[in-house]
Amino acid sequence: MVSNVAVSLIGVPTDIGAGHRGARLGPEALRIAGLPEALAARGVDVRDCGNLDGPVNPWSAPVDGYRHLDEVVAWNRLLMQATRRELEAGRLPVMLGGDHCLGVGSITAVADWCRQQGKQLRVLWLDAHSDFNTSAVTPSGNVHGMPVACLCGLGPKVLTHLGQHSPALQPAQVRQIGIRSVDPEEKRLIKQHQVDVYDMRYIDENGMKRTMQAALAGVDANTHLHVSFDVDFLDPQIAPGVGTTVPGGVNYREAQLVMEMIADTGLMGSLDIVELNPLLDHHNRTAELAVDLVESLFGKSTLMRD
């Protein structure tokens, strides 16, 4: 279980990498839904670092296959630096997004930190999408579809070389869970780079317990678990407040089991919460569900378990 942990909330209010307006409102929606208070009630030392202040979203067309690349880089650099500061202070950074392009900044910081500390890194990517696109295979140019590829060295140099090492990650360090929407050319890249994907068919056939056991296989006391939680991981019937809904997602009980099994390891060292779009939500219920699930990541359970 996660215990005696010091958490720093880092708001990143931008939809710079997305195709819909609204994810920039996600940090405030999570605060309004009571995230700081919920964690504090669990005995967590919570520090809200406020929001980072980056460039506004110009909502312009793609240039050379990327939309808003300069602004995406600026936001990710700010987040990388903020994440690194909190890690160096011995705190667990929780990124309140914002869209999923921000995973480049947070995970680059975590990867550099793990190298320095001699720890192995395992990234759990909870998402409807693999986010393994490149400019060559995505027509939209939206960078929120590219962060895993960028972290693995596929993408523009300004993102693949954001941190101290490139690539920040090897595909073998990533486990993707809940995937159910992958572009045709993206499928080829995933197969070529042998990304470990537990899609909804795998979950249907094996159940979430066996899925998580497989995704967590090989972690040990020297492992830093980074959880990158895209709210569209959840089925849109329970989590409508996202810009890219894909039916047939993870249900409430499955999602709780995912979070509880991660909490059971006691190894989570950093967290992203992304793609929450309050403009598309109903009475902030998606944000409230996200807070409920994050509580489980920090040890909430029905019974006292050993």
TrEMBL record:
InterPro entries with a match to the protein in the record: Arginase, Ureohydrolase, Ureohydrolase_dom_sf, Ureohydrolase_Mn_BS
Pfam family name, one: Arginase
Keywords linked to the UniProt accession: Arginine metabolism, Hydrolase, Manganese, Metal-binding
GO cellular component: cytoplasm
EC category name: hydrolase
Binding, Mn(2+) 2: D232
UniProt-listed GO biological process terms: arginine metabolic process; urea cycle
Secretion signal span: none
Recorded GO MF terms: arginase activity; manganese ion binding
PROSITE patterns hit by this protein: ARGINASE_1, ARGINASE_2
Named cofactor requirement(s): Mn(2+)
EC number: 3.5.3.1
Pathway(s) this gene product operates in, as recorded in its UniProt entry: Nitrogen metabolism; urea cycle; L-ornithine and urea from L-arginine: step 1/1
Catalytic activity from the UniProt record: L-arginine + H2O = urea + L-ornithine
Record-stated family: Belongs to the arginase family.
Protein's recorded name: Arginase
